[in-house]
Design goal:
Blueprint lengths: L1 H19 L4 H25 L6
Helix pairs in contact: 1-2
Keywords: Membrane, Transmembrane, Transmembrane helix
Length: 55
């Protein structure tokens, strides 16, 4: 969970820097990509964590 939170924070920071700084628009797209990766990681962890093993 800490990894997902870290990735979301990094995505927000990169997005803000990409929007505010002139000529650094590529950081916005990198931030969006990091956010998508964070969503995929959280979805995979949520799917795996929901399973219970019956022995």
């Amino acid at each position: 969970m800490a990894l997902v939170l870290f990735l979301v924070i990094v995505a927000i920071v990169l997005g803000l820097v990409g929007v505010v700084a002139d000529g650094l628009g590529y950081l916005l797209f990198i931030g969006i990509a990091v956010l998508i990766v964070a969503l995929i990681v959280s979805a995979v962890r949520f799917r795996r964590g929901g399973r219970s093993v019956n022995r």
